[in-house]
Structures are given as structure tokens and as C-alpha cells.
UniProtKB/TrEMBL annotation, chains A, B:
Reaction catalyzed: thiamine phosphate + ATP = thiamine diphosphate + ADP
Chain sites annotated for binding Mg(2+) 2: D41, D69
Miscellaneous: Reaction mechanism of ThiL seems to utilize a direct, inline transfer of the gamma-phosphate of ATP to TMP rather than a phosphorylated enzyme intermediate.
Gene3D superfamilies: PurM-like C-terminal domain, PurM-like, N-terminal domain
Function: Catalyzes the ATP-dependent phosphorylation of thiamine-monophosphate (TMP) to form thiamine-pyrophosphate (TPP), the active form of vitamin B1.
Leading EC class: transferase
Family per similarity comment: Belongs to the thiamine-monophosphate kinase family.
Protein name: Thiamine-monophosphate kinase
Domain PurM-like C-terminal per the UniProt entry, residue ranges: 141-243
Record: residues binding Mg(2+) 1: D41, D112
Domain PurM-like N-terminal: 24-128
């Protein structure tokens, strides 16, 4: 059973209506007139980070990737639950938690601590929706413009240099997400590579994402084709009606068209390269 | 840094008021006039279950231990998020999830799937409080009677026989917990051993739990002193005012007294045995 088969099997379980058929990064839960946005991501040694990584950086990344999912929904974080592992230098894990929780003003709600090696950490982030319609990845429409909030490739450069904060300490775009959420047709964070995530949005929306490489903002020093197929930048990718002027810095990188020969075109062609980082 | 030091360090982080100082098994979150009850527990191969365990049983136990924490709060489950691992025979994991989610009428909200070995699974369970005051472990008062909802030792016998459903498929006492929640001074599930968990309740409450071994219901065939120091039974332990008659089957096993020479007495003596299963 591979991952796609496993997720297909999970979709046959009794699903909450807010699970959205397990086709999005978050779930919604209506409670007493509010809508909560829920997400859970795990990161494992040797899979999502290298053995020997400073536990400070593990903690930051663990929380950041979950807050980034809330950002793409325009949600205000209410708290996190942490599935922690008692690793060596665990005090650095606590300090990393302190740094990111303080930076984004998010309180710790609870969690669990276990001892296991190699370590797998989990985080559940809980947010409050700030719009009646929570943005989804499947809402893009033909004619929408396609935008990204910032340059791609900074995480890649940081990873390759071995000391880049863009890779070690990704910054969830919570303020951008909240400013954009009332206006966008679709939104998601770029975690696995711009091209791959754009194709996912187009596929979910029944559209074709037509991206012009020269329009994509690229981090200084990064090779463009590698930058758009590398992940971990956590910029927000969004589709919005053609006349929309974003209230935050963003670059218009292409358009959504109707369904065609492939869900993603790069400079008018079906790209014949790996679009991003899958199955990690 | 050991586990106690780690948790002490976590308590210095920005905590949500509903985190209760990380001193309980769950957190509460007030949302739109409702109170949610949140819990996260992880289970790891080689720590919480033996390598080679049927993934059906892993899935059941993963969800059951989290629902048991909701049961002790009298909470009605609203859904779960699963941090899954793509193990061999992953279809058995899905079937185990199906079995317990169907049994307790709990929908899947979402989660994450990773590939890592040895596997660590996470679950976040979200429930709705059914009482204005959510029972805590620290609410017991001198004079309260101490009760348990059912026999101890069944999980131990099941573990040792290698085929006992009491160990493989623990049953969270959700209905009992809801019936008891409006009336109890303190409540928790017995996950790590009756004596250990009773001492925890007494310590948190500033009391002495005085338990009479002959009053403790013991599973047929189990040796009493071993049964009360073995975990995984997931019965509910609760303290209630002396005149209280429980609306569900329960055995009165002792009393809460004021603080004394030790937080736990067994037949009037400070027990000199290991009280339960710690640090797993």
C-alpha cells in the first residue's frame, strides 16, 4: 500500500464534514458560532530534518509548518498541542518553542512527551477562522490571476549553505494570510515546491495553472528552475479575480485557465521536470 | 534533562490558561460559548506496543487512549486528527481506525501521513465539555470517597496471555464519564496503574488517598497487588462527596483524607512497591 492508496483508504472512513474529504491541509470545526481551523503535521529525524539538527530548529520548524497551514486559511492561531520527544539537549527544544510561540504570540495548550529514537515530533495547531468562507485550495476559477507573496529559493539556498535561517526558521505568513483571506478564490502555502503546489491547486480546482517563469520572484543567487521546484519557503500561493490588487506585497506569476491538456503549464509548455518534493 | 525537568521547562513557556499548567491530561479551550476539551497522545513502536503488532490494534489503542482522556472529562468527542505512519499492512491500520471510530461514533477530522521507522503515531482528540465545570484531577477534597468504575488487571492478563482484547482493545468509558462528570470532585483515567494514578490525584489535590486493597475490584485470575500497579485498564478513578451514589457501576475503594505523611496509603501503610508504569 503506497501513500496515495493509504489516503484513498482513509477517505472511506467516517469523515467529519469539515475534513473536506481529506483533500486540504486543514479541517474546519464549527463550534458555538465560530469556525475553528485545525491542522496536524509531524516531522521525523532523517526524513524532515537531518540527524544532529539543533533541537531549537526542530521546534521552530515543527510549529512553523503548522502555523503556515493556518496562515493559508487566514486563521488566527489560538494554541498548539505538541507531541514532544525527550531528545538530547531537550532544553534547546524548549527554547525553540519559546522563540516561535513568543514571535507569533501563540500559547502552548498541551501535548505529550515520549522517549523514542529516531524521534518523530507532532504538532496540532488550532486557529480561529477570520472569514465566513475559509479559503481552500479548490476554489480557483478560470480567469483568476495567480500570485505568490514572496521569493522562492531562499530555503534552498539556506539548506545548501548549511546555515540559512530561511530553511531553519521558516516564517509563517500569518498576517499576509489574514489580509488576503477575504478576497482570494483559493490559497495554500508553498511547502513542497511552487510548481507542484500550483499544480495541486489547479487540479483541485479543475483549472490549468499557467505560470510565466520570468514573473516568479526568485531569491538572489538562486537558479530559477530549481527555486520553483524546491520546497520549504512557506510563501502563500493564491488565486484571485483578475482585477484584484493585493493588500500585501505579492507577485503576479500567471493565470488560471480552464481545464486543458495538463493542470500546469510553465511558459505555455507542460514541464517535463520533477515539480517538487513529494512523499517526505 | 529527564522527563520531569523537561516538563518543568515546558511550564515556563507562554501557556494557554486552559493548559492548566500542563498538570492535567487535557486542555480546555473556550470557543463561542462552548468549552472544548483537547488531548494529544503519541504511541511508538517498541515503547507503547511491541514490534509486529497488528496495525489494527495500534490504531485502536491510539484512538482509545485519547478518547479515554476525554471520557475522564465527561466530554463528548467531536473528532480526531491522526498523525499516521505508512507501515506494512497499512490497510489493517485503516480497518482498526474504522472499527473504533464507528464503535464510538467519532469522525476523522484530518491529520498527516509520514514514512518513518520505527513508527510513532500521534492522535489529537477534540471533545465538547458537557458540564460547566470540567472535572480535573486536582479537585478532590478531604472527606471525599474514592471510586473506580471497574476491575483492574484485565489488561495485564490480556497482555500476558498474548491475545486479550482488554489489552489490545481498551474501551474508553465515555458514557460513564459523562454520567459522572456533573457530580465528581476529581476524575482521571487509570492508564498507568491504580496506585500511581491515585497518588497523582491525591498529590494534585493536596490530599491523602487511603485505599483498602480488599475493596478494589480485581479481574478474575489476577493477583491483586500486581493488578493495582499495572496500567492500561482505562477504568475511571474518581473522588466524590461522601453521600454520593454513582449513577453507573463503580466500587468504593477508599477515602480522601487531608495531607499526611504520604499522598497514598494502602491499607493504612505507605506502600513500598513500584506504584505503576512510569516514563513509557
Amino acid at each position: 500500500m503506497n501513500e496515495a492508496q493509504f489516503i484513498a483508504a482513509l477517505r472511506t472512513l467516517p469523515l467529519h464534514p469539515g475534513a473536506e474529504g481529506l483533500r486540504d491541509d486543514t479541517a474546519t470545526l464549527a463550534v458555538g458560532g465560530e469556525t475553528l481551523v485545525l491542522t496536524h503535521d509531524a516531522i521525523a529525524e532523517g526524513v524532515h530534518y537531518r540527524p544532529g539538527t539543533d533541537p531549537f530548529d526542530i521546534a521552530w520548524k515543527l510549529v512553523a509548518v503548522n502555523l503556515s497551514d493556518l496562515a493559508a486559511k487566514g486563521a488566527e492561531p489560538l494554541g498548539v498541542l505538541i507531541g514532544a520527544v525527550l531528545v538530547e539537549k531537550a532544553e534547546r527544544f524548549v527554547e525553540g518553542l519559546r522563540a516561535i510561540l513568543t514571535e507569533y504570540d501563540v500559547p502552548l495548550l498541551g501535548g505529550d512527551t515520549i522517549s523514542v529514537s529516531p524521534a518523530t515530533f507532532g504538532c496540532t495547531a488550532i486557529g480561529r477562522a477570520t472569514t465566513a468562507q475559509v479559503p481552500r485550495r479548490d476554489g480557483a476559477r478560470p480567469g483568476d490571476a495567480l500570485w505568490v507573496t514572496g521569493p522562492l529559493g531562499a530555503a534552498m539556498l539556506g539548506f545548501e549553505s548549511g546555515h540559512g535561517t530561511a530553511y531553519l526558521h521558516p516564517r509563517p505568513r500569518l498576517n499576509d494570510g489574514r489580509a488576503l483571506a477575504p478576497h482570494v478564490s483559493a490559497m495554500m502555502d508553498v511547502s513542497d515546491g511552487l510548481l507542484l503546489d500550483a499544480r495541486r491547486m489547479a487540479e483541485a480546482s479543475g483549472c490549468t495553472a499557467d505560470i510565466t517563469l520570468a514573473r516568479v520572484p526568485i531569491a538572489a543567487g538562486a537558479e530559477p528552475l530549481r527555486a520553483v521546484t524546491w520546497g520549504d519557503d512557506y510563501e502563500l500561493l493564491f488565486a484571485a479575480p483578475p482585477g484584484f490588487v493585493p493588500p500585501v506585497p505579492a507577485a503576479r506569476i500567471g493565470e488560471m485557465a480552464g481545464p486543458g491538456k495538463a493542470p500546469l503549464l510553465l511558459d505555455g509548455q507542460v514541464p517535463e521536470i520533477a515539480l517538487g518534493y513529494q512523499h517526505r
